[in-house]
Specification:
Layout lengths: L2 E6 L4 H12 L2 E9 L7 H11 L4 E6 L37 H16 L3 E3 L15 H14 L1 H5 L5 E3 L7 H10 L23 H13 L14
Helix pairs in contact: 1-6, 6-7
């Protein structure tokens, strides 16, 4: 019997790797992406390409306008922080954090999973290499999973016990890249930049720097184009 899962798919390298891992483990994957008012909406094109390449049986893009609230450099007229060579990555919770984003996305994923009769949600959070977001921590995932089993008809009736899968939670970016390459992930299809342009990723935002550092540590060339020189 095929096991159904909902996979949150942003179009970045982490979520692409998670989709590949779920497919490897035999899940019938329904990919879910969001048009949430993000300045880097080009990631949705990447998500569609990744979903097709890695064999998702379905890919939905949901509109939920978080730009209505703002409060983030990704959804409001706030500059995306850039860093010069030698700078540390942003300390604390950076301005690129989108308030409650993963809570909202997982809630939509939970709704779809309940309709599909799926017990499994997948999300590409990491507690090792991350930009300080509170909704990427194991404590948050565990709390959401408890809530999910209290808040759904299937959970209350005992027909489905929801599990939020976080296969990257203890992996570095280099380990994630190595894992994905072993599974045939084409990272040239992905995008990670918070402030992309037609001539490539910025190369200087925290997300670009984490990605570039991961490829450098993995000893693999990053297949995407950058507008600025390498900064690690």
């Amino acid at each position: 019997m095929t096991t159904v899962a909902v996979v949150l798919l942003s179009g970045g390298l982490d979520s692409a790797t998670v989709l590949a891992l779920a497919r490897r483990d035999g899940f019938e994957c329904h990919a879910l992406s969001f048009r949430y008012g993000q300045r880097h909406a080009v990631e949705l094109e990447a998500a569609a390409a990744v979903a097709a390449k890695l064999g998702a049986v379905d890919h939905k893009i949901v509109d939920v306008d978080l730009a209505t609230f703002g409060g983030s450099a990704l959804t409001a007229d706030i500059p995306v922080p850039t860093n010069d060579p030698g700078d540390d990555l942003s300390a604390g919770i950076p301005v690129t954090y989108v308030p409650a984003r993963n809570t909202i996305f997982l809630s939509f994923g939970l709704a779809w999973a309940e309709v599909l009769g799926a017990s499994d949600l997948f999300i590409g959070v990491s507690a090792v290499d991350y930009s300080g977001y509170p909704d990427c921590r194991p404590e948050f995932i565990e709390a959401f999973e408890r809530m999910a089993n209290l808040a759904t008809k299937t959970g209350v009736e005992g027909t489905t016990s929801v599990h939020v899968n976080t296969p990257l939670i203890a992996m570095t970016k280099a380990q994630i890249i190595d894992t994905g390459l072993a599974l045939g992930v084409d990272y040239g299809l992905t995008t990670s930049c918070y402030d992309p342009a037609p001539d490539g990723a910025c190369g200087r935002c925290d997300s670009c720097r984490l990605r570039r550092r991961g490829f450098a540590e993995a000893g693999v060339e990053d297949p995407i184009a950058y507008r600025h020189p390498v900064t690690t």
